[in-house]
Specification:
Layout (H helix, E strand, L loop, with lengths): L1 H9 L1 H8 L2 H10 L11 E5 L5 H9 L4 E6 L2 H13 L7 E5 L12 E7 L8 H11 E12 L5 H8 L8 H21 L4 H11 L2 E8 L4 E7 L3
Parallel strand pairs: 1-2, 1-4, 2-3, 4-5
Antiparallel strand pairs: 5-7, 6-7
Helix pairs in contact: 3-4, 6-9
Length: 229
Amino acid sequence: MMDNRRLFNWTAWGYDFITRQEIWREQIRQTLTYAQDPQGLEEVLDLGCGPGISTFVFGEALVDAKIVGVDVAEKMIRRARAHHLTSYSHLENVKFDRADVYDLPFEAESFDLAVGHSFLYLLPDRLNALRSILEVLRPGGILVLMEPNAEGTVAQALRHVEGRRWLRSPFAAGRFATSMVMWRIVSRSQGQLRKDELEGLFEGAGFYGCHVQPTLGGLGLHAVGKKRG
């Protein structure tokens, strides 16, 4: 994890910039549709939370739940906490901790839902990362990941969002296009994932009821698995 930690500390500002857009928030909200009763959730773990945008979306959507955002990079967590103080201080159900996914600092069976956005593909030992996440989920708990699809293209993503009202300004459209191109470049160098590969990883880690489906017009994949009750 050390290389990724340095990478994310170095790129914290840029990552903050590209995730502060509606397409990112929309993707975060979509992950809640995989929970059978989102408003019944009590504890949610946001893995690889970066500067906290995803955590804040969960905090606003799940006002009765406790949301914990974790990231391996100190600068990401500092940015998340700063945003919390300056822009999201009304969200008293949100907190941030620096944590390594291979050694999560939580008791077993602590969370109803764990969510991660574009972080599994960066890990050298994906199977053990998933096993670590499984351990902190409660029986019946759900893991939802959004990962880069090896078979997707930026053109597909652009067609998928064409005409959305929040992309009608040149600035918003440019930010979205830049973020998708950068995601594609970085994921190509780190190792994009295929549907069958994600399903195999989830099942190998001990999840059941696993399914993977495309999102963002096929540029990304949503992978879902449950912990046996």
